[in-house]
């Protein structure tokens, strides 16, 4: 019996050690070198999900749920623009942080194009310097000048809520 008990204890300890060392992406601090890749689904214009993990796209912002410019649901338009661009292609994300809602925060791309560049350039998002250090400022200025996306619509002054973009 002693030999059999020893084997069972060894198997149990090995399984426990394996389970403890197999931490998920969200259990570890993110160093900026973690990546996650796969076909993504869109949650909204600045949030995607890959392999069941929510990812907040870093550095830009899109309208929140219910946001409208006249009769146009700009929340939905932004989400559809992101979905149309990604399609069923592989999205590759470099994780830089985790936010207060426990989402990964990452810069993501499809086919070599940064999703933030695309969304801001198309006028469905805007640079958020607090998080981007101005990374998408030129794209926003170009979209505004071209009256692309949101910038072509009559939007309420409070479209972006209480957020500041300076």
UniProtKB/TrEMBL annotation:
Keywords: Signal. Residues 33-153 form the TNase-like domain. InterPro entries: SNase_OB-fold_sf, Staphylococal_nuclease_OB-fold. It holds the Pfam family SNase. It comes from the Bacteria. Residues 1-24 form the signal peptide. PANTHER family: BLR1266 PROTEIN (PTHR12302:SF26), EBNA2 BINDING PROTEIN P100 (PTHR12302). This is TNase-like domain-containing protein. It comes from Hyphomonas atlantica.
